[in-house]
Design goal:
The complex is a heterodimer. By secondary structure, chain A is α/β, with parallel strands linked by helices. Chain A has 15 helices and 18 strands. Chain A folds into 2 domains: 256 residues, Aconitase, domain 3; 148 residues, Aconitase, domain 3 (2-Layer Sandwich), CATH 3.30.499. Chain A is globular, with a radius of gyration of 21 Å. By secondary structure, chain B is α/β, with parallel strands linked by helices. Chain B has a single domain, classed as Aconitase, domain 4 (Alpha-Beta Barrel). In chain B, strand 2, helix 3 and strand 3 form a beta-alpha-beta unit. The chains are: A alpha/beta, B alpha/beta. At the A-B interface, helix 2 and helix 5 of A face helix 1, helix 4, helix 6 and helix 7 of B.
Chain lengths: 418, 180
């Protein structure tokens, strides 16, 4: 019996042959933290160490509340900046870079064969480049800072075969929402999800990031694509040479195989208050919205902004909808500027905000009042996540959010897809 | 590895129709309005404060109590406050058919036993377990018992390293032990 990607990668790190279910002690190549680095520093100090044994493994990116919206957040950022300087952490990205998952990737810090852990549940995103990337809690990160090691359970693997290609107006977000709606928010608990098939090969790196990002919403420990020429090109463009391509064996032991035919897919919407409460857009059309958000670590890349701009170009957003556009990173913002996408958003009446998490986790930049409804390209719609406990969050693709922003209600984007 | 035995009164998290609540996410366990708190002692009062029907849980719970919930407990965010708030209240264990993967790790690393018991839903439906029953849990062997009704069950036992962390009182203490 062959081995899966996760078995091979963790086995190689552990220096022994392992199979799903085994517990291994391994050293991560990269350790990500964001604004919560302040709390991790506190725990690290409690452990009694003065210096990080491996500062080169750390990646610290400020993104959750940037720039700081209150004295409390400002103090946290200050503590982090001082620590970064003191411990000589080179991979530090201050408030002007963007969302951690986008920044880490575009800086070439995610690569095939790497083991990445992060104090954020959407750390799974880096699987898009063939890394094994796992989200953990912040005490765990403090412990890994100190010891360099972590215990991990080798996950079983669900393979998801994407067959065919996407119809017009339907995107990666619709694929993952459809899968989560069909199989549930705990389908892949403790397990790995391998996205495979010809449909997977055709997806851009940005689209692959959408799927791996939201694998977390299926409960997955990690989600990944096996590296192909597109992956290698992406790395080459960023001068990344230190990586090891790891593939699953053809006779690997998958726990389950799921097939999704992309041709039949229509735009999907996750309804309040869980990500697996998914309906085709046709069933929820007409629901009035107060705020639209295009951005986040799920859908704030230039690929997403291009789709939204294509729909918004030359039109005006609905007067009763606040439309927020938040590019995922400074680099993505520059690309969007060069493609004149930002002009389109501003002229359409959108609010273009600085790269960062924005209101996705309810901290600032557009929190919701009781009774308000948001339609967002984010990954999570838990009750109260974007502000009031009595607000409602729907999740959809950038195309669906852009079309709905025009009409003031949830709208099928395909009518704008000429 | 010596056995760890936990016994306590349980709170079965059911909805208004008496069904075990599934997919209780980290926002329902600990709302983002209180994420800025760093002192664990202050977090207890907000435990389950965003879960319909259970907003008063923190007032009702007593140290040593056990929480019983539906599948996928702790789905979502990696926020550790969602574990810490139960520790602040002195909750002895959380029992559910399954947990969010990061939640499970956070709990083990904080020495909060998270008990994976696949049949718990059947037991609730079959009236073999209800709130205020006393549960006994043996963590190393995976043996459980409803003490009030003298009924036994099996749950997924912890692996060696998980048990060692719980026994040490959490990941940090465990790391200290290894250094010695």
């Amino acid at each position: 019996m062959g081995q899966t990607f996760s078995e091979k990668l963790l086995g190689s790190k552990a220096g022994q042959k392992v199979k799903a279910g085994d517990i291994v002690i391994v050293s991560p190549d990269r350790i990500l933290s964001h604004d919560n680095t302040a709390a991790i520093i506190k725990s690290f100090r409690e452990l009694g160490l003065k210096h990080l044994p491996h500062p080169e493994r750390l990646v610290v990116i400020l993104d959750h509340v940037v720039p700081a919206s209150s004295e409390k957040y400002a103090l946290n950022h200050k503590i982090i900046r001082e620590f970064v300087k003191e411990q000589r952490i080179n991979n530090f990205f201050d408030v002007n870079y963007g969302i951690c998952h986008q920044v880490l990737t575009e800086q070439g810090l995610a690569a095939p064969g790497k083991l990445i852990i992060g104090a954020d549940s959407h750390t799974t995103t880096y699987g898009a480049l063939g890394a094994l990337a796992v989200g953990v809690g912040r005490s765990e990160v403090a412990s890994v800072w100190a010891t360099g090691e972590i215990w991990l359970r080798v996950p079983e693997t669900i393979q998801i075969q994407l067959e065919g290609s996407l119809p017009p107006g339907v995107a990666a977000k619709d694929i993952i929402l459809s899968l989560i709606g069909e199989h549930g928010a705990d389908k892949a608990n403790y397990q790995a999800v391998e996205f495979a098939g010809e449909g997977a090969t055709c997806l851009s790196i940005a689209s692959r990031m959408v799927l791996c990002n939201m694998a977390a919403e299926m409960g997955a420990k990690n989600g990944y694509f096996l590296p192909d020429q597109q992956t290698l090109d992406y790395l080459h463009q960023r001068g990344v040479e230190d990586y090891e391509v790891i593939n699953s064996d053809p006779d690997a032991d998958y726990r389950e195989r799921i097939i999704l035919h992309l041709e039949q897919l229509e735009p999907q919407v996750a309804c309040p208050h869980s990500v697996d409460n998914v309906r085709p857009v046709s069933e929820v059309e007409g629901i009035k919205i107060h705020q639209a958000l295009i951005g986040t670590c799920t859908n704030g890349r230039v690929e997403d902004l291009e789709i939204a701009a294509r729909i918004l170009k030359g039109r005006q957003v609905h007067p009763e909808v606040r439309v927020l556009v938040i590019p995922a990173s400074h680099q993505e913002l520059i690309k969007a500027l060069k493609k004149d996408l930002i002009d389109i958003f501003v002229e359409a009446g959108c609010l273009v905000l600085n790269p960062g998490c924005g209101p996705c986790l309810g901290a600032h930049q557009g929190v919701l009042a009781p009774g308000e409804v948001a339609l967002s390209t984010a990954n999570r719609n838990f009750r109260g996540r974007m502000g009031s406990r009595d607000s409602f969050i729907y999740l959809a693709s950038p195309a669906t959010v852009a079309a709905s922003a025009l009409e003031g209600k949830i709208t099928d984007p395909r009518k704008y897809w000429s | 590895m010596s056995e760890i035995i936990i016994e306590g009164r349980c709170w079965v998290l059911v909805d208004k129709d008496g069904f075990l609540i599934e997919d209780i996410d980290t926002d329902q366990i600990y709302h983002n309005a209180y994420l800025h708190l760093t002192d664990r002692k202050l977090m207890g009062q907000y435990a389950l404060g965003n879960l319909e029907g259970w907003q008063d849980f923190a007032q009702k719970a007593r140290p040593g109590d056990i929480v019983v919930a539906g599948r996928n407990f702790g789905a979502g965010s990696s926020r550790q406050q969602a574990v810490d708030c139960f520790l602040a209240l002195g909750i002895a264990a959380i029992v559910a058919p399954s947990f969010g993967a990061i939640y499970f790790r956070n709990a083990v690393n904080s020495a909060l036993p998270v008990i994976r018991w696949a049949q718990v839903d059947e037991w609730i439906r079959g009236n073999n377990l209800k709130s205020s029953d006393r549960l006994q849990l043996k963590l190393a062997t995976g043996q459980g018992r409803n003490v009030n009704r003298n009924l036994d069950f099996c749950f997924t036992p912890f692996s060696g390293v998980q048990l060692a962390i719980i026994q040490a009182g959490g990941l940090f203490n465990y790391a200290h032990q290894l250094e010695r």
